[in-house]
Design a protein that fits this description.
Blueprint: E1 4-15, E2 18-29, E3 33-37, H1 44-51, E4 59-64, E5 67-68, E6 79-82, H2 94-104, H3 110-123, H4 139-152, E7 157-161, H5 169-184, E8 189-192, H6 196-199, E9 205-210, E10 213-218, H7 220-226, H8 230-242
Parallel strand pairs: 3-8, 3-9, 6-7, 7-8
Antiparallel strand pairs: 1-2, 1-4, 4-5, 9-10
This protein binds adenosine-5'-triphosphate (ATP) and magnesium ion (MG).
Length: 244
Amino acid sequence: MGEKIIEVCNLSKSYGDTQVLKALNMQIEKGEVVAIIGSSGSGKSTLVRCIAGLENIDGGKIMLRGQRISGTKSTNGKVGMVFQNFNLFPHYKVGENVSMPLKTVLKYSDEEAEEKSRTMLDRVHMLDKLNQYPNNLSGGQQQRVAIARALALGPEVMIFDEPTSSLDPELSHEVFETISDLAKEGQTMLIVTHQINAVRRFATRMVFLSKGNIEVEGTPDYIFNQSKNYDLKHFLKQVSFEDI
Ligand SMILES: Nc1ncnc2c1ncn2[C@@H]1O[C@H](COP(=O)(O)OP(=O)(O)OP(=O)(O)O)[C@@H](O)[C@H]1O
Ligand SMILES: [Mg+2]
């Protein structure tokens, strides 16, 4: 048994009368790369937003290395989040986008933050864009800067919510290459995506969400080739047409 990073216990979450998550349990161990799949509206974003501390929860608890994080709001970068639309600060240069949170969240000095920013941008092959503004970058490049920014804070777990869904296939490929490199380096990750063929190459586990809970989970091989679950099979048939 590996070291537990995240423990989700009996998590329930509703929006008005709609119960989205129903007493959901999930654990993530160090170095695991967990892909969350499921049809639109199944609660994938809700689940990862709860883990990232972006939503209030109605029941249960979420622990990070044994410490309760649900209800505490800020995870101080320990849970890194990368969104579909990059969310970079448009009026700050690439380098500043990465160095800023280091100063505000981790209280780095200017020099320390700038040095770390360069190191992180180099890691995602974006160092040459240090002094550019985000708008002058391709979507794929912006997403890699967003990854560097989250990664700079030394997250215990990196969460990606549809990181490539606003990108062309080619740019989407380069972002998945970056994520796959992180997987090889042992970064613990949670990835929500419809591009199941891209993640099955490096996910250590896949989780199929349906009706507010985890309906099936297992290795990519189990999910794709062994499970007889009807809802999962139906879902896979649908997405494999879209995801070429
Ligand atoms: N802020 C909100 N207010 C009200 N309802 C919401 C809110 N966010 C999500 N929901 C509802 O919760 C359910 C789950 O939404 P969620 O965004 O988690 O789904 P998803 O699996 O991420 O879907 P998609 O694949 O389309 O991104 C949906 O029925 C959605 O309409
Ligand atoms: Mg979503």
